[in-house]
Amino acid sequence: MTTTTQPAVRTAGVWKIFEHDGIAVEAVRGVSLRIDRGEFVVLAGPSGSGKTTLLNLVGGLTRPTRGRVWIDEQDITDLPERRLAQLRLERLGFVFQAYNLLPVLTALENAEFSLLLRGVPEAERRRAVTELFTKIGIDGLEDRRPGKLSGGQQQRVAVARAVVGEPALVLADEPTANLDSASSGALLDVMVRLNQELGTTFVFATHDTDLMARARRLIRLVDGAIASDVRQ
Amino acid sequence: MRRFRLLLRLALRNVRRQARRSILTAAAIVVSLILLVFSRSLADGAHEKWIASGVQLGSGHLVLQSPAFQTRRAIAEHLQGADLRAVDSALRDPALAARVTAVTHRIEVAALASSPASALPVAVIGVDPAQEAAFSGMDRRLVEGRYLAAGDRLHAYVGEALARRLRLQLGDRLVLTAQALDSSITEQLVRVAGTFRTGMPEVDQGLVYVPLGTAREWLGLGDGVTSVAVLLRDSWGTDRAVARARTLMADRADRVAALSWREAMPELDAAIRIDDYGDYVFHLILFLIVALAIVNTVLMSVLSRTREFGVVRALGLRKGDSALLVTLETMLLTLVAGVAGVMLGLGLTWLFFRHGLDFTRFMGDQMTAAGGIIDPVFVPQFRGAQVVQSFLFVVAIGFLASLYPAFRATRIDITEAMKFEG
């Protein structure tokens, strides 16, 4: 595993307050956090503890009410939407609970989506995706549409889509929640291996105890604030 | 470019993926275009006949005359000598001559027609019989007697209703009284050679044709005429023909005016425009409904794919790309349906109505309006420009209809979209 001291993501006093029917809900309260490149981090906590919101803040999917967020030491807090989209494209990868593959694209096309947007030539895209598919055990499924793949296979394609562009950070929100234990375990193996072999930084939001057990850093959130931050 | 190709690929597959929705929307566009092509080609055909009848009995598609003649209608405003030769020469210009099907030289004057029984105001037109027959087909409108012939001098071809009101029989004498070029009041005795019927009351009750030479002598016009009327292959080439004639006559513009039928017969122009506006309102309502159907379908499609839009935005697609994706989907659908609609519209119109749609039951044998005859058999005419316009109109409707759904796609909040269970 490659661990460096360069932060992949950093937050300083981040708050996120939502308005619900005129009532302010503090989803994230003053979180300051640093995650270095190559880390394999789990954000854990009960429902409503702010895991997903913190993940969204770090991923530039929503803006903080207060505080600041840096990706690769670039302050993204007030970045214009267009540049934020470009940053997500080039430096971030996402894995969602519900796989969220585009149903009209094949597995290969889904996986190469961000490379295509980045203008990577076709031969290079195909080579990168094919190698990755082999590495994560879904080679031979390139031409299948998501509807023809199992949940575990779809989530592996989603992982491939997230990591193929070698992003600074992969954010995964409950990636194993829809999988049976065998598929879940296999997927975790894939992500641990990618973390070790490629040095990809992973940050998970999860309830999955297996995933928590395999994390090298476990950050527990309670009521939107960090309750504990343990390296294991 | 790669980004555009990706969006295009996504758009194509999304259109195919939502096949039922796409087919329903396309069907609305296709049916509307069939109606549009059918009604436009039918209206164009009916208008062309209407214009043709109007210009044959009236000014022609193009008329060359003294600039003041249009408003003053006095024979003092006539063409003669070098100006008239220049007009005749201009009409031999290859660019113009290629469009021209007939030319007639006329002397038009307001006169009083007197018979032993009565006296009525009439319009007298001095014509070259052969030219006029080729131009207006007046010889084919004969009711009794004969049409004018070369060499005729004291003969008149009289509207049937006028002859009846003046109680004239074939061979009867008729005195025409008008103001000559020298301002004197002058009379001309003629005999009724024949009577005609056009179906237009104002013509049949008030028009007398006499030989051109007779009119010139009677009015003291020398070799002059009041107008040179030109018939073109069709009315659609009028503007170009008028522009060419004006260019050719540019050095005589103060003495010779080239007018289109729209300028020379403003009442016919207005009537056709009003009829067109009625069609446009119908088309606008039709396509407003189509636009609403497109907006509804595309918006439903966008909303049902809220999560997908959230995902692609999270992956780095820009807001503008989301909008472009929606617009591309709509335009693809519109373009395919547009081509199909135009082809089917042309095909069905040609297949079922190429011999015309007969409205005799509703209109009678014929109707007259604004100086023209409306034939109750509407025969469609296909024009490339009309087909292209119809197609572009639908494409524009599709584009406009995509704007709101595209805007909605840009407003999708990524984090909210991820919770969407569509």
Question: Could you please describe the fold and organization of this structure?
Answer:
- The complex is a heterodimer of chains A (232) and B (422).
- Chain A contains eight helices and ten strands.
- In chain A, β4 (66-71) and β5 (74-75) form a beta hairpin.
- Chain A has helices at residues 51-58, 81-91, 107-111, 113-117, 122-135, 151-163, 181-198, 209-214; strands at residues 7-20, 23-36, 40-44, 66-71, 74-75, 92-95, 169-173, 202-206, 217-222, 225-231.
- In chain A, α6 runs parallel beside α7.
- Chain B folds into two domains: 2-54 and 269-419, no CATH class; 59-264, no CATH class.
- Chain B is built from 17 helices and 14 strands.
- In chain B, the strands form three sheets. In chain B, strands 2-3-8-5-7-6 form a six-stranded mixed barrel. In chain B, strands 11-14 form a two-stranded antiparallel sheet. A two-stranded antiparallel ribbon of chain B has the order 12-13.
- In chain B, α2 packs antiparallel against α16.
- The A-B interface holds A 53, 56, 59, 61-62, 81-82, 85-86, 88-90, 94, 96, 98, 100, 102-105, 113-114, 116-119, 161, 173 and B 2-3, 6, 10, 13-14, 16-17, 307-308, 311-319, 414-415, 418.
